[in-house]
């Protein structure tokens, strides 16, 4: 093997692309700044236990680990900047009220997260802390869509989800929090209706029927919301989740070409606490932007805070913009 060859799914960025990336990075950061988001720059590596705190626990398999020769402690190379920004908000800034932060930098992952993607992602994102209301979710979703517009990406398809619906069912059926829903959760994510039916066969009829309906509740937003209200239990938690989705759908309706809801979209289930959103565009198999609410993310750093935010892959966006010219 030639010694100068790079690891698999790790690439050099040559001058023409590097110039496009830098121009787009500046465009996005300026756009965030114009909306009141301040730039932070977390370090590339941290102590492993810090990186894997809170939301970071879901990133353990994606995190490269090494030993610090100075302290002997395990370090991690960041696989996502969200936990780092939460640490900065909770521990270093410690500001009262609402805090808006943004960031841009490389993250390194042990396995690529999408088709034809690099393991080194040029991640750009924005986070809003300290506001648990629907207005914050609307603001962050709006900023995501306007950022894609600033990046000259069009033909957007927005998928909305809300982890609160599944959680309400799991709590109502008394299977949450004790490992009893592990297999059910996996079946729900893959929309394996026969497996969901088998795993819930011994539950009371109301919960059994609701779980069976959940993986079928995806499609055009208005249609899914109507079916969900007809087929799911009328509990306060479910009502709040569906109202949140309806509000976000109304806010985004005129800004996207297609708008869907998927109530079995449970990515990030272990740290999400509310609405989630993914944006797609024609000809691109992977989501071009993802966001969610994750209240309490700063608790492990000494200050639990409502939080919502999104991330973008700068290289993916630059490629889309280049193809659309």
Summarize the structure.
The chain is an alpha+beta fold. It has eleven helices and twelve strands.
- Secondary-structure arrangement, i.e. CATH architecture of the largest domain: 2-Layer Sandwich
Shape: globular
CATH topology of the largest domain: BirA Bifunctional Protein, domain 2
Largest sheet: 9 strands, mixed
Helix content: 25-40%
Average predicted local confidence, pLDDT: 90
Which CATH class of the largest domain? Alpha Beta
Q: What structural category arises from helix and sheet content?
A: alpha+beta
The CATH homologous superfamily name of the largest domain equals Bira Bifunctional Protein, Domain 2
Number of helices: 11
Radius of gyration: 20 Å
Count of the domains: 2
Series of secondary-structure elements, N-terminal to C-terminal:
HEEHEEHEEHEHHHHEHHEEEEH
Work out the number of β strands.
12
Q: End-to-end distance, in Å?
A: 39 Å
Strand order in space, largest sheet? 1-5-6-12-11-10-7-9-8
Strand content: 15-25%
Question: Uncertain regions: pLDDT < 50 for 5+ in a row?
Answer: none
Describe this structure in words.
This protein has 325 residues and is an alpha+beta fold. The chain has two domains: 1-155 and 293-325, BirA Bifunctional Protein, domain 2; 156-281, Bira Bifunctional Protein, Domain 2 (BirA Bifunctional Protein, domain 2). The protein is built from eleven helices and twelve strands. A hairpin with a 7-residue loop joins strand 10 (275-281) and strand 11 (289-293). Helix 4 packs parallel to helix 10 (236-252), helix 5 (163-172) runs antiparallel to helix 10 (236-252) and helix 6 (182-189) runs antiparallel to helix 7. The longest helix is centred in the first third of the chain and has 20 residues, at 15-34. The chain is globular, with a radius of gyration of 20 Å.
């Amino acid at each position: 093997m030639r010694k100068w060859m790079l690891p698999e799914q790790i690439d050099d960025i040559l001058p023409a692309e590097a110039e496009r990336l830098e121009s787009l990075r500046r465009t996005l950061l300026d756009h965030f700044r114009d909306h009141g988001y301040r730039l932070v720059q977390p370090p590339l590596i941290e102590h492993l236990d810090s990186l894997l705190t809170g939301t970071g626990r879901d990133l353990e398999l994606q995190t490269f680990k090494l030993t610090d020769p100075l302290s002997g402690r395990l370090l991690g190379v960041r696989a996502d900047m969200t936990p780092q920004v939460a640490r900065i908000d909770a521990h270093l800034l410690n500001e009262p009220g609402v805090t808006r932060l943004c960031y841009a930098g490389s993250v390194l992952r042990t396995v690529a997260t999408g088709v034809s993607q690099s393991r080194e992602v040029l991640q750009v994102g924005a986070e809003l802390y300290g506001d648990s209301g629907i207005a914050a979710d609307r603001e962050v979703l709006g900023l995501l869509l306007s950022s894609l517009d600033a990046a000259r990406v069009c033909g957007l398809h927005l998928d909305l989800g809300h982890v609160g619906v599944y959680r309400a069912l799991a709590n109502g059926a008394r299977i949450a929090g004790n490992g009893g829903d592990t297999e059910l959760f996996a079946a729900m994510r893959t929309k394996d209706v026969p497996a969901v039916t088998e795993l819930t066969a011994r539950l009371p009829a109301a919960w059994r029927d609701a779980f069976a309906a959940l993986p079928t509740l995806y499609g055009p937003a208005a249609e899914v919301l109507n079916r969900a209200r007809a087929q799911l239990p009328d509990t306060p938690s479910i009502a709040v989740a569906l109202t949140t989705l309806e509000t976000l759908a109304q806010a985004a309706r005129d800004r996207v070409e297609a708008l869907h809801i998927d109530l079995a979209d449970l990515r990030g289930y272990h740290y999400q606490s509310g609405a989630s959103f993914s944006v797609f565009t024609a000809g691109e198999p992977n989501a071009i932007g993802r966001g969610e609410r994750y209240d309490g993310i700063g608790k492990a750093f000494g200050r639990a805070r409502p939080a919502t935010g999104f991330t973008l892959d700068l290289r993916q966006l630059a490629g889309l913009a280049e193809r659309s010219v």
